């Protein structure tokens, strides 16, 4: 049984990987702080030395004098975990672990990095029937609460996924520019969610961590296989080469469509096939994101 929680993360990450993660997170910090990466405070009359970029010309015209928007500096980055808690996340991954376990390792890694740096972390998690939201805050206790709630929500008895509903909630809940990390199934977000992703990407840096599915046709003939949505799969389906090839093609097409849609929107995607792959995959995601910012 894998140990979960923030205390278990450090032992799973190799020192060179940790150093690289912290370096890349510092780069993300700088990227998110650029431009108007500050919280709106109030309006004030323009004074010599104020940045002309802060002048609100419409407000100035209304009041008859030049006014500027003032911003309050914030000391940390805001990270938002957007977690699919649908029943498909309770299925098996290629490593033999449950996808839930891998998703939790991803959440733990990100939460641990945020607490290590003093950043804030928030949560939006849900499926077709449930939606859970926690505001972004700093501190180990808050991060641990997020992890406990994610762990409690994913299992084979969960309702089906509803990624569109999840993304819409994330869009409505997160106003401050953030690093949004979406943890979901490898066939999600579906291409018909592109409009919501486009708006999310306009406001935030977005990474999708896709948890891979085990191939049901790779198991020995006679192995009971239960699809989390369709139920038990007949043995003849698993043993038929032609049907297996068609299933491979259909799965590959779905993954290709998702990857193409995310690429169009400038969203970084990495695949997770095991818990051990999470840290290095997050390094890859941050490196890719730094090139497209």
From TrEMBL:
Where does the record locate the signal sequence feature? none
Q: InterPro entries annotated for this entry? A: DUF58, vWFA_dom_sf
Annotated SUPFAM superfamilies: vWA-like
Q: List, for all copies, the residue spans of the domain called DUF58.
A: 44-221
The protein in question is named: DUF58 domain-containing protein
Q: Native species of this protein?
A: Schaalia naturae
């Amino acid at each position: 049984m894998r140990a979960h929680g923030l205390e278990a993360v450090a032992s799973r990450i190799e020192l060179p990987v940790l150093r690289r993660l912290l370096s890349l997170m510092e780069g993300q910090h700088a990227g998110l702080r650029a431009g108007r990466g500050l919280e709106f405070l109030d309006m004030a009359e323009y004074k010599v030395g104020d940045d002309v970029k802060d002048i609100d010309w419409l407000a100035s015209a209304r009041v008859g004098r030049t006014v500027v928007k003032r911003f309050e500096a914030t000391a940390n980055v805001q990270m938002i975990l957007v977690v699919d808690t649908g029943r498909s996340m309770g299925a098996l991954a290629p490593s033999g672990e449950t996808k839930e376990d891998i998703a939790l390792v991803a959440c733990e890694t990100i939460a641990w990095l945020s607490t290590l740096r003093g950043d804030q972390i928030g949560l939006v998690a849900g499926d077709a029937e449930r939606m859970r939201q926690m505001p972004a805050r700093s501190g180990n206790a808050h991060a641990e609460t997020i992890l406990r709630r994610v762990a409690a929500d994913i299992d084979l008895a969960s309702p089906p996924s509803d990624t569109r509903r999840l993304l819409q909630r994330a869009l409505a809940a997160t106003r401050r520019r953030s690093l949004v990390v979406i943890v979901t199934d490898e066939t999600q977000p579906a291409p018909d969610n592109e409009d919501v992703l486009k708006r999310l990407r306009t406001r935030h840096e977005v990474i999708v961590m896709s948890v891979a599915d085990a191939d049901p046709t790779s198991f020995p003939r006679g192995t009971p296989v239960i699809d989390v949505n369709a139920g038990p799969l007949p043995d003849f389906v698993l043993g038929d080469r032609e049907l297996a090839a068609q299933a491979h093609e259909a799965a590959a097409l779905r993954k290709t469509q998702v990857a193409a849609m995310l690429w169009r929107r400038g969203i970084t995607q990495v695949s997770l096939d095991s818990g051990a792959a999470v840290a290095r995959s997050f390094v890859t995601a941050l490196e890719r994101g730094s090139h497209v910012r």
